[in-house]
Design goal:
The chain is 44% helix and 15% strand. The longest helix is centred in the middle third of the chain and has 23 residues. Helix 5 packs across helix 8 and helix 6 packs parallel to helix 10. It is globular and about 75 Å long. It has a single domain, classed as Alpha-Beta Complex (Cathepsin B, Chain A). By secondary structure, it is α+β, with helices and mostly antiparallel strands. The chain contains 18 helices and 14 strands. A hairpin with a 5-residue loop joins strand 10 and strand 11.
C-alpha cells in the first residue's frame, strides 16, 4: 500500500514540476510545434539554407543594387598629408586627436607628411590610467566588493581605448614629441599582451590597497604604497614602449622635404609651438543620443584618462544642429574629432558606410526595425571608433549628401585610408563630435553652463573608442 502511494506521489511530483516549468515560460511540445511553423522547407528556403551553410553571411547580403561606382568628389574638404596606422591597438582616439592637430601644424609650417608620436602620449596614458584605477580603489575602499562601482573598477583597470578628453589632458600635461623621436614599438601597435599583464598586476595591487585600508593604514602611507606600485607599472611600460624623452632635437622640413631649421625642444616647448593649444582649451563636445533629453549637458563619471583630468562632459543635441557646426568648421578648413559605430554597414573594400550596403532582411526573411534610440537602449549600437572628420559634400541647397573621415587603419584600408559615409548613415550611427567653440552658436555655449547630469561609468555611452 505504501509503495503504491509513494509511486503515485512521485508521478504527481514529476507532473507538477513539468507543469511548473511550462507555466514559468518553458517551451512545451505544443509550443514547439507552433514555433516550427516558422520555417517551411520550400525550394527557395532550401537554396538559402544551402548557401548560408557554405558561405559567410556578409558575402550573401551584399546589395547588388548599391554597387555602383562611388562619387568621391566633395564640395568642401580639408587637405591632409599622410595616413596614419594604429595597427592592432585601440588607440584610435589618440590618433584622431593628434591628427586634428598635425593637420594644422602641417598647414602652418608648410611641412611634408608629419606625425606626432602616438607612442609617447600612449605611454603616459597607460601610466595615468593605472593611477586612476589605484586611486579609485583607495577612494572606494569602504564599499564592499559587491558594490557596482567597485566591480566596475576591477573590470576596467586599464584599457587602450579612450576619448578626446584624454588627448586634451595628456597633451596639456606631458606635451608632444615628433614620431621619429619616440617611434612605435611592437607593444604599442599590438597592445593586448602588455595591457593584460599590467591589468593583472593592477588588480593584485588593488586588492592589496583595499586590504591595507581596511586594516586602518593611514592615507599618507597608502599614497606611498601606490607610488611604489606605479614604479613597477612604469618599469613595465618602459620595457614595452621605451623611455619617454625629456628633450630632443627636431629638424623641421618644408613641403619638399628640405631642412629649414634645427630646433632643440622639450615635450612642452614642442607642444607650445607645433600643437594646437586653442583646440585643447577652447572646444565643445557634442553628442547625438536620442535616449537622453536634448539640450541638456551630461557628464559620465570616471570617463577620463587622468585622475586630475576631466570627465567626458557633452551637450546632447539633435543631429541636424550638430551637422551645422560640422559644416561651419569644415568650411573654415578645420578638421574635427568624430566618433561613430563604424562596424555597421561598412563596405570595407570600397571604404563606404551606407545603410543600403547590405540586405540582411531579404536573406533572413524578416526585418530589422530598431531605430537609433532602441539600438542604444539595447546595447546594439554605441560609439566604437574615432576618426577625423575632414570633408562634406553639399547639394545645391546646401544640404549634406555625404561625409568623409580620415581613418587610422593605414593607407590600404578603405578608400585610400579614408571612409566615405552617406548622410543617411551619418544620421543613424554618428555619436560624438568635438568642435572648436568659434563654430558653436551662443545658445549651445549657454547649455554648457548647466550643472551636468552625471551618468554612471557603465552607461551605454561610456564605450571607449578603439
Amino acid at each position: 500500500m505504501n509503495k503504491h502511494f509513494l509511486l503515485a506521489f512521485m508521478l504527481l511530483a514529476i507532473a507538477s514540476v513539468a507543469n511548473a516549468q511550462t507555466a514559468k515560460g518553458g517551451i512545451d511540445s505544443r509550443m514547439l510545434q507552433q514555433i516550427e511553423k516558422g520555417y517551411e522547407d520550400t525550394p527557395a528556403n532550401k537554396a538559402i539554407r544551402n548557401a548560408i551553410g557554405s558561405n559567410d553571411i556578409s558575402a550573401l547580403v551584399v546589395n547588388q543594387d548599391n554597387q555602383r561606382a562611388m562619387d568621391t568628389n566633395f564640395t568642401i574638404r580639408v587637405k591632409s598629408k599622410g595616413i596614419t596606422n594604429q595597427a592592432s591597438s585601440g588607440r584610435c582616439w589618440l590618433f584622431t586627436g593628434l591628427n586634428v592637430m598635425r593637420a594644422k601644424a602641417i598647414d602652418k609650417y608648410d611641412m611634408p607628411a608629419f606625425e606626432f608620436s602616438q607612442n609617447y602620449s600612449f605611454f603616459y596614458d597607460q601610466l595615468e590610467k593605472a593611477n586612476l584605477f589605484l586611486q579609485g580603489v583607495i577612494d572606494t575602499h569602504k564599499q564592499s566588493m559587491d558594490d557596482k562601482m567597485v566591480q566596475w573598477l576591477f573590470q576596467h583597470p586599464l584599457s587602450d581605448g579612450g576619448t578626446f578628453c584624454g588627448v586634451a589632458d595628456l597633451v596639456k600635461k606631458y606635451g608632444l614629441v615628433p614620431k621619429d623621436v619616440m617611434p612605435d614599438t611592437y607593444s604599442s601597435t599590438h597592445t593586448s599582451s602588455m595591457r593584460s599583464l599590467i591589468s593583472q598586476k593592477l588588480k593584485e595591487y588593488g586588492l592589496k590597497l583595499r586590504d591595507e585600508a581596511a586594516k586602518g593604514v593611514k592615507p599618507a602611507d597608502l599614497e606611498t604604497e601606490k607610488t611604489a606600485m606605479l614604479s613597477t607599472v612604469y618599469r613595465m611600460l618602459v620595457l614595452n614602449l621605451g623611455i619617454p624623452p625629456k628633450e630632443f632635437d627636431f629638424v623641421r622640413k618644408d613641403s619638399e622635404g628640405k631642412p629649414v631649421a634645427t630646433e632643440h625642444h622639450t615635450p612642452m616647448s614642442f607642444y607650445e609651438k607645433y600643437g594646437d593649444m586653442s583646440l585643447l582649451s577652447d572646444y565643445v563636445m557634442l553628442m547625438n543620443d536620442p535616449t537622453r533629453e536634448y539640450y541638456k549637458t551630461y557628464e559620465i563619471d570616471f570617463d577620463r584618462h587622468t585622475y586630475d583630468g576631466q570627465n567626458w562632459v557633452y551637450v546632447n543635441l539633435p543631429i541636424d544642429e550638430i551637422k551645422e557646426m560640422a559644416i561651419a568648421s569644415l568650411k573654415d578648413n578645420t578638421m574635427m574629432y568624430f566618433s561613430c559605430d563604424v562596424g555597421k554597414f561598412q563596405d570595407s573594400k570600397r571604404g563606404l558606410l551606407d545603410v543600403n550596403n547590405f540586405d540582411y532582411g531579404s536573406l533572413m526573411g524578416t526585418t530589422f526595425g530598431m531605430d537609433k534610440k532602441q539600438r542604444i537602449q539595447t546595447f546594439a549600437s554605441a560609439s566604437t571608433h574615432a576618426m577625423t572628420l575632414t570633408a562634406v559634400d553639399l547639394d545645391k541647397d546646401g544640404k549634406p549628401v555625404k561625409w568623409m573621415v580620415e581613418n587610422s587603419w593605414g593607407l590600404d584600408r578603405g578608400f585610400n585610408g579614408f571612409l566615405i559615409m552617406t548622410d543617411e548613415w551619418f544620421n543613424e550611427y554618428m555619436f560624438r563630435l568635438v568642435v572648436e567653440s568659434r563654430y558653436v552658436p551662443e545658445k549651445v555655449k549657454g547649455l554648457m553652463k548647466q550643472t551636468p547630469i552625471k551618468l554612471p561609468a557603465w552607461d551605454p555611452m561610456f564605450a571607449e573608442e578603439e
